[in-house]
Amino acid sequence: MSGKPRYLSPEWKEQVEALLKSELTPEKMNHITSSMSNIYVNCPDGKNHYMFFGFVNGKLDRFLVNEGEAPQAEFKITGDYDTFAKISRAEMNAQVGLMSGKLKLKGNMVKALKLASIADRLNKVIAKVEAEF
Amino acid sequence: MKSQDPYYIDFPARIKSIQAEMDKEGLDVYLGSRLRTLSWTLDAFCPWRSYVVIPREGMPVAFTFVIDAARVGDDSWLDEDNIRGYAPMGGQDQVAQISDYIIEDLLAGKGRIGYETGLSNYLPEGNLTQYEYEAFKAALPEATFINAHFIVDQLSLIKDEGTINRFREASRQVDAGHKAVYEAIIDGGFKKLTETEVAGIASLAMRKEGSEWEWSFTGGNEIASGYRTGYTGGACTPPGRRKLAAGEPLMVDLHAMFKLGLGDHSVNYLLSPVSDRQWWHANNFVNIVKKTHQTYRAGITPSGLAAEMLSYADEQGFADYMVPGFEHGIGMMGDEWRIGKHDGPMPYWTDPFHVYQENEMLICAMQYACAEDGIGFRYEAPIVIKENGMELLPKHPLEIIEIK
């Protein structure tokens, strides 16, 4: 046992949520009100998982990690578990994932552009939580 | 708001008129990609590859390259959410976005989709490419695709008052460009100038008046001097670096754009000294332009007008120098060249038997070229067809001006 939580497990989710709330102030999040679901397909357990972020005025209001169908979100990013895992280990930039077609974004692209740097900040914080993959 | 703004166009009514035609044709979606369709439906200039998806009911959604989507959204009458940007990212390329939109929001990928294809001599026409067509068919395998450009073509033929007023303003801007060129070339000023500089002088003057750009794909402002005015059969002269010279002709063909309304007017000069032979050519040209002006009215056809004018030129002994065409079509940005509804004997070319109707707009366009004498003239001017004549939008006098 490494003592690290398993990626996408309730323990991992708890650590990520605490870190997001402590590090990403409303100012750093540009006081956005938006939501995003990352949809994980081709997961090791054969099920689809999701990670949902809901921000209200820059505050993380809802953070959900679960299996099954994700709640409705303004933006939906779909990709393989392995691709998201690389992003969560800071081995890949989400922009590269999108531009190479490994991730598929649904939602208004013009609005998404405004949120690109914020999503990057989000991923950098997530990468700080070491996990078993 | 409608009555206050002379440039007001009822775009929601235009969309409803397209939807009424879609209903008649049994179309569930109209996928417009031609520049003329985008201008006519969005009220925004779309320089990047763009598309408008019109459902049978409700508001259209436009898709353009993401780097320009916010600006198009700002210019268009549509809400921000109805102008979407595509980008080279997973799920965000144009085919993925449009087909997802059609599948999810419109008809679950089934039904009849009208699209735009055809032939054009105008490079920025914007017909759907073979690749796009195949990609949409693959993304929407249960849909049927029908070439339906005729819907927009027939609806955009007769111009409303807001459109005509935009053209009037663009012509006013072109007149200002001609005034600036005239002031720069008089009193020997031409001796210091090249064709490109003349184009730039006009551009600055027109932009000061509010012109958005020199819209013509033929080179912005077309300037020709000396032998370049007389290319055989020629009517396309992007400016070159040639210096203007005494004893030569100068042709200045300016283009301004105001709210997608287009100015397009040519003025011709003879840079002194002028020979008798040059004046003979000049007078021939002015006479036939005047005669053409007098002939325009609702009820005539392009072929009828051409036959009458060429007969006149033949009687006067200069038919060999006339390019045998007297006008080209015009509409909001992207709608250029063809006349009629594109249902004439030569597909996608001007219908020679098209009967002009009141409030159609044309560019009266005539080219005279005598290559052996190194001389030529061009006349272009937007006109509105009236019941018993025509309205000439530029106010610059019709004459060939000698510059001393």
Written description of the protein model:
The complex is a heterodimer of chains A (133) and B (404). Chain A is globular, with a radius of gyration of 14 Å. Chain A has one domain: Nonspecific Lipid-transfer Protein, Chain A (2-Layer Sandwich). In chain A, strands 3-2-1-4-5 form a five-stranded mixed β-sheet. Chain A is an alpha+beta fold and 133 residues long. The two termini of chain A are 13 Å apart. The longest helix of chain A has 18 residues. Chain B is of the alpha/beta class and 404 residues long. Helices cover 34% and strands 22% of the residues of chain B. Chain B contains ten helices and 15 strands. In chain B, helix 4 crosses helix 5, helix 7 packs across helix 8 and helix 9 runs antiparallel to helix 10. The radius of gyration of chain B is 23 Å and the shape is elongated. Classes of the chains: A alpha+beta (133), B alpha/beta (404). At the A-B interface, helix 3, strand 5 and helix 4 of A face helix 3, strand 4 and helix 4 of B.
Outline of the structure:
The complex is a heterodimer of chains A (133) and B (404). Chain A is an alpha+beta fold.
Taking strands numbered 1, 2, ... along the chain, how are they ordered across the largest sheet of chain B? 4-3-2-1-5-6
**How many structural domains does the protein architecture of chain A include?**
1
What value does the Rg of chain A take, in angstroms?
14 Å
Shape of chain A: globular
The CATH top-level class label of the largest domain in chain B: Alpha Beta
Q: How many distinct beta strands of chain B?
A: 15
CATH topology of chain A: Nonspecific Lipid-transfer Protein, Chain A
Low-pLDDT stretches of chain A are none
Radius of gyration of chain B: 23 Å
Distance between the termini of chain A: 13 Å
CATH architecture of the largest domain in chain B: Alpha-Beta Complex
Main structural class of chain A: alpha+beta
